[in-house]
Structures are given as C-alpha cells and as structure tokens.
Amino acid sequence: MQTVxxxxxxxxxxxxxxxxxxxxxxxxxxxxxxxxxxxxxxxxMMEITGRRTxxxxxxxxxxVGGHDDLVAxxxxxxxxxxxxGNA
Length: 87
Description:
The protein is of the alpha+beta class. It has helices at 13-24, 39-49, 67-75, 79-84, and strands spanning 4-8, 30-34, 56-59, 62-65.
C-alpha cells in the first residue's frame, strides 16, 4: 500500500471524511500534517499544490487534491489502484 500524506486541520469536516474514506479502503496510517498547529506548513502546502484549502491529499507521489477530488477518484475506480501502487 502506498504512503498517504494529508495536510489537514483538527476541525475540518472534509478532512475527517477523507480520513474515513481512506480508512475504509484499508489505509492504516495517514501522515497528517496539521496546518492549524504549524502555519508554516500551510505555506509549504500552498507552494506544492497551488491550493490553500484542506485537506490536500497525496497518495505516494501523486497529489490527489481535496475531499471532493478523492471522492471523484473513488467513483471513477481509480482509488484502489492508486493505493495499491498500480496507477
């Protein structure tokens, strides 16, 4: 299974939903970077993704995007292969 990294805040409902989707897919560990606790990380996230909203999700080296992007990826059938490293 690919490494999952998520830029998030502690109170973001979309972050919580995205984490639940990933857990339902068998992801046991999500490297969560809390931009509310470390504002410098938000700047880094914005430089990497060009976005300022959370969550911002990476699976392996692939930037998936936010919650809606994750849901769309799942609906297209692309989430499982990406998590498995077959995308």
